[in-house]
Design goal:
Elements: H1 3-17, H2 26-44, H3 48-77, H4 79-93, H5 96-111, H6 115-123, H7 135-182, H8 194-221, H9 226-236, H10 245-256, E1 260-266, E2 269-276, H11 286-313
Helix pairs in contact: 1-4, 2-3, 2-7, 3-4, 3-7, 4-7, 5-6, 5-7, 5-11, 6-7, 7-8, 7-10, 7-11, 8-9, 8-10, 8-11, 9-10
């Protein structure tokens, strides 16, 4: 089966099923491996930065070797088994359905005027302290999460899967998972997590920029604000503390006509982030629905562009 069809089937399965809890998820195994290696290497390597580099190298290498070995073994059993296993690995690397689900759970709580529940639900998809957020703050946090996780959970895995198949998708997930675990600017991870954070910045650099551009196109198809999305993307995409997250957040802010960013509490510390976008409209729960629509259409356009390009070139 052609890789393009495998990727398409993996993407469609994610849209239909999300992450089934009854199946083992590769990311959980990657996270367990990363934490195990962190514990061992911190004890044996004196410098935290070097221990972090070794952890990153070993996790990516082991992930790649395991995926390669399992695909090879599956192929020896039967080519169909290898194809199905490859589709499963691709399916497990996408997270669009779960992202929409979590965002809509936040929307549902807000529509029911249950702010405490909305805070709990948005806390599942953001890293900030949500206990004191007002309604607008909850919506803003949710929209930011949808925009940022569009890259981490959909378009970047699609990008690396298109280049290197299931092996590329899972190695990307390994890097992204380590950034989620170690990429914090606190005393514990400032040095140890440096390598994971920088490598994650590198592998997301091109997918993030393609995503921001296609979000402008999506805004046009959805009848939102494509002109403003384009201007805000050009103006604000480099204001974010992350070199990549601002790409999708800026395009989303412009498409919705809202302002994202600002001050938030992370692990008990107030962090002032630059504002992204202009506050042309009041932030309301309906913006979560619009953000999900932009996310889904951008994912489709991104996949069509990459897979179409692969078919033409190869």
């Amino acid at each position: 089966m052609a890789l393009e069809l495998k990727i398409l089937l993996g993407f469609l399965l994610d849209q239909l099923l999300g992450d089934p809890r009854v199946l083992p998820h590769p990311v959980n195994g990657i996270a367990a491996l990363a934490k195990w290696l962190e514990h061992r290497l911190r004890r044996t390597v004196r410098k935290a930065g070097l221990a972090g580099i070794l952890t990153v190298v070993m996790v990516v290498l082991i992930t790649g070797l395991i995926v390669f070995a399992l695909l090879t073994i599956a192929g020896l059993i039967h080519p169909i088994i290898k194809t199905l296993f490859g589709i499963y690995l691709l399916f497990s690397s996408f997270a669009a359905r779960d992202l929409v689900h979590h965002a809509m759970q936040v929307h549902k709580a807000l529509e029911q005027d249950d702010l405490p529940e909305a805070r709990k639900r948005v806390a599942m998809i953001v890293g900030r302290d949500t206990s004191n957020l007002d309604r607008a703050g909850v919506v803003r946090a949710c929209v930011e999460s949808v925009a940022e996780n569009l890259v981490d959970g959909v378009t970047a895995p699609l990008f690396w899967a298109t280049l290197f198949g299931p092996l590329g998708a899972l190695c990307y997930k390994a890097i992204n998972t380590m950034d989620s675990l170690f990429g914090y600017k606190n005393d514990k991870y400032l040095e140890f997590g440096w390598a994971a954070a920088r490598l994650d910045d590198l592998v997301n650099w091109l997918p993030a920029r393609l995503t921001g551009l296609l979000m402008v196109v999506s805004a046009a198809f959805l009848g939102l604000r494509p002109g403003l999305a384009w201007r805000i993307w050009l103006r604000d995409r480099d204001r974010h503390t992350s070199p990549n997250a601002g790409q999708s957040e800026a395009a989303m802010a412009g498409a919705l006509g809202v302002q994202l960013g600002g001050s938030n509490i992370y692990f008990g510390t107030k962090v002032d982030k630059p504002c992204i976008g202009d506050p042309l409209t009041e932030v309301v729960p309906g913006h979560i629905v619009q953000a999900n629509r932009v996310m889904i259409l951008t994912s489709v356009l991104f996949g069509a562009l990459l897979l179409g390009g692969r078919m033409v070139l190869l």
